[in-house]
Amino acid sequence: MTDLTKTPLKPEEDVAGPFLPDDAVLIRDLNFSYGDRPVLKGINMRLKRGSRCLLIGANGAGKSTLLRILGGRHLTKPDDAVTVMGMHAFRDTKLNLIRAYMDTDWGMRTVAFAGYGVPLQADIPVTGMMSKLQSQHPERRDELLELLGIDPEWRMNRVSDGQRRRVQLFLGLVRPFDILLLDEVTVSLDVVVRQDLLRWLRRETEVRGATVIYATHIFDGLDDWPSHLHFMTNQGRTGWQGKLEDLEHYQELRRAGDPGPLLRIAERWLRTETEEQKRRKLREKELGTQVLDDKLSQPTLSGGGFAAGRMYDHFHEGV
Ligand SMILES: Nc1ncnc2c1ncn2[C@@H]1O[C@H](COP(=O)(O)OP(=O)(O)OP(=O)(O)O)[C@@H](O)[C@H]1O
């Protein structure tokens, strides 16, 4: 078993310098709370342009929160903790011209982004939505309509969930972005569209140098797609982050011919977390007092074998 404590790569060091020209994201000691409830604790990240980063974590780990912060929806502590494409993630509205953000809320209410406010259950065709943007990028529009299998005459009051999702993706992707933040938006897509979309996104990163950060629980067909993983623990911290190629256990599983190494790793991290949580509860019961979460929950260590990548010091506390 690899002793991770021997080779801790410290993201604190990665993020020590300034935002560099080839950086897409720089997060420095980000803390975030909803009211008095801390959700993100000490998150650090430096992501280069052209990266495809997969956010992994249990329900409630904070993936959506982190994406919303990157998408400029929340103020942070410290105020300048998050820089996206060299700009302040929240305050710099110019970012919205090169940043795309999509989550599963869309279609439930209105097209809130881009200032349109179009009711999405209305009797309106695809061609009638964000039509100026569509006409500004005719080639991209046609490519995406084909890729997503959209009939431009579909009317939004008569589409299925999956079709609505495809339209969301179409409208969100038609403007060329430098950074794309995706929160579980591929859930209702059929297999073919999802795979084609993933391939298209890979090309966007390779050809245009765009950066994609994608939170999902569905790992089917995702092996080899991400360049980076960021595992968020249920304690609001980073459990592991780094290049997929540096995740030794992933490489071992691949060499052994495992058909779904990504799923196996995510499952193991999450299961270890669940077990740690159970142990914590049991210990709390024994002691009659609260046990500090962070002292016990260290899935990347207790799982063993997840060498290299970036570990935070607090994961080595009490090990
Ligand atoms: N608007 C909000 N107000 C208060 N608490 C919130 C809000 N949004 C999320 N939370 C809480 O913050 C924590 C992180 O939620 P978040 O949605 O970021 O997690 P997630 O990792 O995206 O989860 P999932 O995989 O279920 O989508 C959860 O405990 C959640 O209850």
TrEMBL record:
GO MF entry, a single one: ATP hydrolysis activity
InterPro entries from the UniProt entry: AAA+_ATPase, ABC_transporter-like_ATP-bd, P-loop_NTPase
Keyword set, alphabetical order: ATP-binding, Nucleotide-binding
Signal sequence bounds: none
Keyword Zinc: no
Domain (ABC transporter): residue spans on this chain: 25-259
Protein name: ABC transporter domain-containing protein
Organism from which the protein derives: Nannochloropsis salina CCMP1776
